[in-house]
Amino acid sequence: QSALTQPASVSGSPGQSITISCTGTSSDVGSYNLVSWYQQHPGKAPKLMIYEGSKRPSGVSNRFSGSKSGNTASLTISGLQAEDEADYYCCSYAGSSTVFGGGTKLTVL
Amino acid sequence: QVTLKESGPVLVKPTETLTLTCTVSGFSLSNARMGVSWIRQPPGKALEWLAHIFSNDEKSYSTSLKSRLTISKDTSKSQVVLTMTNMDPVDTATYYCARFITVTTWRYFDLWGRGTLVTVSS
Question: pLDDT at residue A1 above 80?
Answer without folding.
Answer: no
